[in-house]
Design goal:
By secondary structure, this protein is an alpha/beta fold. Helices cover 18% and strands 32% of the residues. The strands form seven sheets. Strands 4-5-6-7-8-9-10-12 form an eight-stranded parallel beta barrel, surrounded by five helices. Strands 29-28-31-26-15-32-27-30 form an eight-stranded antiparallel sheet, with no helix packed on it. Strand 8, helix 7 and strand 9 form a beta-alpha-beta unit. The longest helix is centred in the first third of the chain and has 20 residues. The radius of gyration is 25 Å and the shape is globular.
């Protein structure tokens, strides 16, 4: 079988010098039907390898319950068929701007678990997961006739911790479970990251977006025996809600790539093709140098200003990269495959509506009755909505009603009427109780959990409790609602009247239909809507929010069928323009330059 080796002078494939020219393409951000096209795009750009993370929380949604894990093996097989080697980064933590950095909320929500260190409860869960995952990766190694060249140990650990015993335990566990291709770590080129995140005897690589000469010099200073490898070349960047769309000049990005290759380095372009954070899988960050500032959730699109855009089309950056890579190729590059056809622009009228509060008996039939508000994790809910119902005794004068530890956004109803929309930066409202009792309903929506830095593993909901002035408010009925799975059981034919015990107004599901002659790519633009979620034929495209920058959601062709197609919107803020636009081009927002420091 073939052999891939690491030497101080570079990499050897079956004894011959080999440069790894890789591109990141996450199988979980692209529909399986689109994998072959996207992989051919990488080959056409001049790459010989594909890199992917593995998101633990996607594949083990509940302890011991595994979901769609064969997808990883199928992706690696498709990559081999496209003529690509593969690099696999199994975590357990992956960052990736993915929800919770890939760690399951059922694990990080436990009080007895300390993350990403030599903690017994944490490692017990990791070991059970790796017992399932790692043998699958091992089957696809180049030493067994597959295409996997390298496997990563943890991910950017030097940005988080310094527990070398933990890293060694993970590395030994990979080998024990059958990994015999080279292991590697990846970190920023800063001294504290390279000293905290690397292991003796394990290849160290660096991640950066500019100054390759300086980054490789830092790597050589700390690891003089390791050949230069940029494991994440940040040629673009991701977006947060409420910020501008990040772009990077194609000429500048191609110049940095060329300088890396001229220095003899190997590279993994991050991202070569970004894809989409479908459903509720987008992560989040915290602002400020200490990552303790405002919560900054990531948008649905993971276009990343990558060479291959969100729908799989070649960009100017693709063409510039292809020119650079062609100069290092030993044979002509393959032709560039055409993207899928586009939908004809049009408008969809939404003609049916259901108030969310009127279908709680379907979406949340078993509310939890407790003294203090439970978190999402305590309710067994990863993401979605929780309606907390309580009451304030009175009479009493206006006092601050505080949702202590609110994560992330809440609609506050008093006596059945909307009083305010609160969030973690504004979690309180002056509330009086003029009579003997005042009903309080708090509908909390979660956004992505932090995926990078010391606050990974945060909890959702009302994390600490509700106070009226200094007095804790007790006695709750909590209704958890899994938004991503909500549309399947919706009773559209229901004729009963509204539940008058619940708040007036509130979130509403809207439904409409549209016709297509044949499946094709497009974008859904919720112009005039406020904040919410969109489904097409039962598949959740993701979140929309009028604050931008993203103004449209990518609609991939495999979700459509010839003829009639269903579209559902859950609007949280009460907007109802009654129509959605179908477009043949994206709206990712007004561009801004790439920030200098990537995380």
């Amino acid at each position: 079988m073939p052999q891939f080796d690491v030497t101080p002078g570079g990499f050897l494939l079956d004894g011959s010098p080999h440069r790894v020219l890789s591109g990141a393409l996450h199988y979980f951000r692209v529909l399986p039907e689109q994998w072959p096209h996207r992989l051919r795009m990488l080959r056409a750009m001049g790459l010989n390898c594909v890199e992917t993370y593995v998101p633990w929380n996607l594949h083990e949604p509940e302890p011991g319950v595994h979901h769609d894990l064969p997808a990883l093996g199928e992706f690696l097989t498709r990559a081999a068929e496209a003529g690509l080697h593969a690099i696999v980064r199994p975590g357990p933590y992956i960052c990736a701007e993915w929800e919770n950095g890939g760690l399951p909320a059922w694990l990080t929500g436990r009080d007895d678990v300390r993350l990403r260190c030599l903690d017994e409860p944490y490692l017990e869960a990791v070991d059970r997961w790796f017992d399932v995952l790692v043998p699958l990766i091992a089957e696809h190694q180049i030493t067994r006739g597959g295409n996997v060249l390298m496997v990563q140990v943890e991910n950017e650990y030097g940005s988080y911790g310094s527990d070398q015993a933990y890293l060694r335990d993970l590395a030994d566990g990979l080998v024990r479970r059958g990994i015999d291709v080279p292991l590697f770590t990846s970190d920023g080129p800063e001294a504290h990251m390279l000293t905290g995140g690397t292991l003796p005897g394990v290849l160290a690589t660096v991640n950066f977006g500019s100054d390759p000469e300086g980054a490789f010099a830092a790597l050589a200073e700390h690891r003089p025996q390791d050949p230069p490898f940029c494991m994440e070349y940040w040629n673009g960047w991701f977006d947060h809600w409420g910020e501008r769309h990040t772009t990077r000049d194609a000429t500048d990005a191609a110049d940095v790539l060329d300088r890396m290759l001229a220095a003899g380095a190997s590279v993994n372009v991050y991202m070569a093709h970004g894809g989409t954070n479908f459903g509720t899988w987008a992560g989040a960050n915290r602002g400020g140098p200490d990552h303790a500032g405002a919560h900054a959730p990531t948008v649905t699109s993971y276009d990343y200003d990558a060479p291959v855009d969100e729908r799989g089309a070649a960009t100017e950056k693709f063409r510039r990269f292809r020119e650079v890579l062609a100069g290092y190729a030993t044979e002509p590059l393959p032709d560039v495959p055409e993207p899928a056809p586009l939908l004809t622009p049009g408008e969809v009228r939404l003609t049916e509506s259901l108030r969310l509060f009127d279908v709680l008996d379907v979406l949340s039939p078993d509310p939890v009755v407790v003294s203090t508000p439970p978190t999402f994790e305590q309710l067994g809910l990863t993401h979605g909505l929780v309606l907390y119902r309580t009451a304030l005794p009175g009479p009493r004068p206006p006092l601050p009603l505080t949702l202590d530890g609110l994560a992330d956004r809440a609609h506050l109803f008093l006596d059945g009427k909307l009083a305010a929309v609160l969030d973690g930066d504004r979690p309180a409202l002056e509330v009086a109780v003029p009579g003997e009792r005042r009903s309080v309903d708090v509908l909390v929506e979660s956004m992505g959990r932090v995926n990078y830095g010391p606050l990974v593993g945060g909890r959702k909901g009302i994390v600490k409790g509700v106070r009226h002035a200094l007095q804790w408010v007790h006695g709750y009925e909590a209704h958890p609602i899994d938004v991503a799975a909500a549309v399947g059981p919706l009773p559209w034919g229901r004729a009963e009247g509204p539940d008058t015990s619940l708040p007036e107004g509130g979130p509403v599901f809207h439904r409409g239909w549209f016709e297509v002659d044949a499946p094709a790519d497009g974008w859904i633009a919720p112009t005039g809507w406020g904040k919410g979620y969109i489904w097409v034929n039962g598949f959740c495209l993701g979140r929309y929010w009028s604050r931008g920058p993203q103004g449209s959601l990518y609609l991939p062709w495999p979700l459509l069928r010839p003829g009639r197609n269903e579209i559902v919107v859950l609007e949280l803020d009460g907007a109802n323009p009654a129509t959605l636009a179908i477009r043949d081009e994206p709206d990712l927002g007004d561009p801004a330059p790439t920030p200098g420091r990537q995380s």
